Amino acid sequence: MLNSITQLFGIRYPIIQAGMVWASGWRLASAVSNAGGLGLLGAGSMYPAVLREHIQKCKKATDMPFGVNVPLLYPDIDKLMEIILDEKVKIVFTAAGNPNLWTKHLKSHGCTVAHVVSSVKFALKAQACGVDAIVAEGFEAGGHNGREETTTMALIPLVKKTIEIPLIAAGGIGSGNAMLAAHALGADGVQVGSRFVATPEASSHDYFKTEVIKAQQGSTELTLKELTPVRLLKNPFYNKIKELYAEGASTEKLNKLLGKGRAKKGMFEGDLVEGELEIGQVAAQIEKIIPAAEVVEEFISAYNNKLGKLELFN
Amino acid sequence: MLNSITQLFGIRYPIIQAGMVWASGWRLASAVSNAGGLGLLGAGSMYPAVLREHIQKCKKATDMPFGVNVPLLYPDIDKLMEIILDEKVKIVFTAAGNPNLWTKHLKSHGCTVAHVVSSVKFALKAQACGVDAIVAEGFEAGGHNGREETTTMALIPLVKKTIEIPLIAAGGIGSGNAMLAAHALGADGVQVGSRFVATPEASSHDYFKTEVIKAQQGSTELTLKELTPVRLLKNPFYNKIKELYAEGASTEKLNKLLGKGRAKKGMFEGDLVEGELEIGQVAAQIEKIIPAAEVVEEFISAYNNKLGKLELFN
Q1: CB contact under 8 A, A180 and B120
Q2: Same domain, B70 and B197
């Protein structure tokens, strides 16, 4: 099937593996790329030297296209970008920041650039900056998210109507059925995060993966809206946040509680008590840890299966 | 097309028009039923005698099946149910309460019963009570909503996996594309609210309809979570709620501000300043007021059109 996303990135299936902090290293990215999707390294949790190492290992592990996800608020952003270009990575997903400056730079070096947004307004801005594709992420997604709280079902048709470049749906994409739903809404491809956390290839701590498997409906909440809104799995650290809210705590106090390194502690080091655990609402749908290639196969198989069963009305 | 929802209700298309307060009178319900969907009278905003009048007018306006939506916390619930049975209405959608008692009663009188939920847990309970279908409503829906904040994209697959009876998706269904998406997720039909508010047949005040047309992304928010969570259009009344939150006001104070009759004031009387305006996130997608029959036609046409364009992967 010819598709604007598969053509843009030179991949078989329009399934992008999200470049998640503390989960998306070379093992996961190369496994997804080898399975026909697009693997992304999550640079947000990597020092520049670590990113270089992951890029080099990813190149050895796959001959297929892969990319890097870069949060534009990264403190050492210049160094990251230098490494990406030096290592000749040809696909960059940017997020959390203004794509204006870096899009031109990356494209002048032959990169294909996608930018992640949670609103129509920023989708339009990113398109004007010259990005090649938009990732529109709904409220149900794990990790950092938009203030409008627009869900994937409500967001994708709005963005689709507004932009002219290819559109990737993110948030709530936990199966091939949801991928089909996203395409029905007007997306040309999907970005999948949470489902890829529960794979052996994800670099997340096994304790965290086990919590993801155990999650039920209502196990996550979008919180810390006064700082940067983030969807967290409910754990003792989350409970501390709730206690502060109950006390009517200031933004300053919330910031102090959050501190630094909470995400690493929770998702990478497996501290389920003190750590921050970022995951999407689809965690409730995930029942077991399976290889990333199987995730891709299951998605395509379910997509085709369901599409074959839907009938026209007359 | 044979479908469990069309068969259950004896209708042509599995499009249920939500029984919304202050919007869903006999004009809207009969128009939707005549167009091949299922119209519902919204008993939640009707005195018993008013409901009887609407049922009788609806019968005169259509020979097709229609139903009544009943919030089970309605103070005069016994009287409403008596009228429904006395008038031989054969389809009842219940919401906001325990379906145990009334489901048996209604079914013993030959009614088909559907129950609205926002969680897997209550879907299971409703199924155990013997309802014929479940409406699962996501976070993006207008009006009252669940505390888990689960979006339609995340909720439908969870409920589908759990129940065995037909499933109707609600929340974020603003077009035929979204209807197709809901079916891809596993729903057998859709319940559409907000889109039907912006029709000439809706009994809502024209001022409110105009606000719905003007709504953009971020124009609604799920608020008053300490009372009953409700998704509201942002207006001066909503701003007053936000001011109370900023002051750290008690639940009591919030309740006092809300008072009684806010919804009628806003949606029926058109007081855009002091009234409560309930609408879903899809309001941002609605661009004009069109007849209810056109809404149904546009949905089916877009559903078929998009389904015809989706291709299998290989």
Answers
A1: no
A2: yes
Phi and psi dihedrals of A135, rounded to 5? -100, 120
User: Cβ B310–A307 below 8 Å, yes or no?
Assistant: yes
A160 lies in the same domain as A265: no
pLDDT tens for A257-296 read 999 999 999 999 999 999 999 999 999 999 999 999 999 9
- Inter-chain touch A185–B181, beta carbons under 8 Å: yes
Contacts of B131 (CB under 8 A, 6+ apart): B94, B99, B103, B113, B114, B115, B165
How many other CB atoms are there within 10 angstroms of residue A98's CB atom? 15
| Helix, strand, coil % over all residues of chain A, rounded to 5 | 45, 15, 40
A163 and A128 inside one domain: yes
Domain, as residue range, for B260: 215-282
What's the number of domains chain B is made of? 2
Q: Do B217 and A149 touch (CB under 8 A)?
A: no
Residues B65 and B161 in one domain: yes
Judge whether A98 is closer than 8 Å to chain B, CB to CB.
no
pLDDT digit string, tens, across residues B232-265: 999 999 999 999 998 889 999 999 999 999 999 9
User: What Cα–Cα distance (Å) separates residue B107 from each residue in B3, B10, B98, B132?
Assistant: 21, 17, 15, 9
Size of interface A-B (CB pairs under 8 A): 164
B31: in domain = yes
Q: Are residues B189 and B229 in the same domain?
A: no
pLDDT band at B139, cuts 50/70/90? very high
Residue-wise pLDDT tens digits, A49-95 = 999 999 999 999 999 999 999 999 999 999 999 999 999 999 999 99
Q: Which of A137, A150, A153 is the mutation pick for testing B, counting most B CBs within 10 A? A: A153
The answer to whether residue B210 is domain-embedded is no
For residues A217 and A156, membership in a common domain is answered with no
| Residue B209, in any domain of the structure | no
Q: Which of A125, A165, A185 is nearest to B151 (CA)?
A: A185
- Whether residue B111 sits in one domain with residue B221: no
Within a domain: A128: yes
Q: What is the CATH number of the domain that holds A140?
A: 3.20.20.70
pLDDT of residue B101: 86
Chain B residues with CB-CB distance to A153 below 8 A: 138, 140, 151-153, 171-173, 178, 181
Report, as an integer, the average pLDDT of B170-182. 98
